[in-house]
Design goal:
mainly beta, globular
């Protein structure tokens, strides 16, 4: 089977694009080259139970680290050679303990690993030595502090010297979201409410039964690109940008023209059965969903994906989504939409898995996860021509 798959890697597909409102006449009719690459695991295997949802890139984008939401190891994948290199086994306990449940993996500007578990975020070097831990649960923080039902919801982004950390806090009583700075030496929090981000609470659906609950959130994310922090939510195109040099927070609406700029429907937030829960989720996904910004070309332009679900009635007379319309948007350094295209020909089916896609940009290509007969593969959308 692997031999057949390797042959498939040699086939380059061309995905045609509909540019109904291009701002550049010379790109009025262009195509995105697409290829598929398979990760060589040799005689080993990669844990794909959750796809690559619990993975993160090294700062230099040469490696992907996949946790599989397991303990106590990471799978290190070389994105230059397309080979699985190592299962990094961490300590179960002691000063270099990995954590019980690592649900976020990233890296910092020092190219150290930043691993988030249930109680906090730890920084490890590549020798698996713990350099730092930020305790986020139950802490007696000074300054603004945590109040009521507020809790950290995002990955933590440390400063270069680890004296500060940046993240997000949500108040689960009313949906308010805060950008937060943690000053580590004094354990002081400084919170700033993010204007308009509470709107995402209108698109959260919950079903409770038998002491358990199923909840679907529109989760606010924070990422670092260069010397800026970008805060986004899937429910709307607006972004908040924190400039680490200027130390200020600004908002940009980033209005697209090929899609709506936000979800607008009204939904039942508390439902009484799993059937209702699934129906509401489908309705929400039929509206536009925005992914976080991606960078990597230069400090002048950013890339963003958005999707709209295409539903159908299944054999059980229930609505389901088995395909998406995919849009690719280019933003300039002022975060204005300068180009956008609708991507065709099956790319949307990559977004229909149980765990969401976690796209990343490397070498001018957007990498999308693909499970190819239980082997890790990526479909890559080449954006280089678009950003010229």
């Amino acid at each position: 089977m692997k031999n057949l798959l390797l042959v498939l890697l040699l086939l380059a597909l061309l995905v045609s694009c509909d540019k109904s409102s291009s701002r550049y006449e010379d790109t009025a009719h262009w195509e995105i080259p697409v290829d598929t690459v398979l990760i060589d695991t040799g005689e080993d295997f990669i844990n794909l139970r959750h796809g690559t949802y619990f993975s993160g890139l090294s700062h230099d984008k040469n490696y992907l680290f996949n946790s599989g939401a397991t303990s106590p190891y990471l799978e290190r994948i070389n994105l230059e050679t397309l080979k699985f290199e190592e299962r990094m086994i961490f300590d179960d306990d002691g000063p270099n303990a990995f954590g019980d449940y690592v649900n976020r993996v990233s890296s910092d500007v020092n190219n150290n690993l930043v691993l988030t578990s249930w109680d906090g975020t730890s920084v490890f070097n590549m020798q698996k030595e713990k350099l730092k831990k930020y305790l986020l649960m139950g802490g007696d923080f000074k300054g603004d502090g945590l109040e009521g039902r507020e809790q950290f919801i995002s990955q933590i982004i440390p400063s270069k010297d680890y004296s500060e950390a940046f993240g997000l806090i949500q108040d689960f009583a009313n949906g308010d979201v805060f950008f937060v700075i943690l000053y580590d030496d004094t354990q002081t929090l400084e919170k700033t409410r993010l204007e308009g981000f509470e709107k995402a609470e209108e698109f959260a659906v919950a079903y409770s039964a038998g002491g358990g609950a199923s909840i679907a959130y529109q989760t606010t994310e924070i990422t670092r690109l260069g010397n800026k922090l970008f805060i986004t939510n899937p429910a709307f195109s607006r972004i908040a940008v924190y400039d680490l040099d200027q130390r200020d927070l600004r908002y940009y609406d980033c209005k697209p023209t090929l899609t709506a700029s936000e979800k607008v429907g009204r939904y039942n937030r508390n439902v009484h059965s799993m059937e209702e829960f699934d129906e509401e989720r489908v309705k929400i996904e039929e509206e536009v969903t925005f992914f976080p910004l991606m960078g990597g070309f230069d400090d002048e332009r950013y890339v963003r994906l958005s999707i709209i679900g295409k539903s159908k009635i299944n054999a059980q007379s229930m609505s389901e989504i088995n395909d998406y319309v995919v849009f690719l948007t280019i933003l300039n350094k002022s975060f204005e939409v300068v180009d956008e295209v609708k991507v065709e020909d099956g790319v949307g089916k990559l977004f229909t898995k149980s765990f969401p896609q976690k796209p990343f940009l490397k070498d001018g290509k957007i990498w999308l996860y693909l499970n190819m007969d239980d082997e890790l593969a990526f479909v890559r959308l080449d954006c280089n021509r678009l950003i010229l």
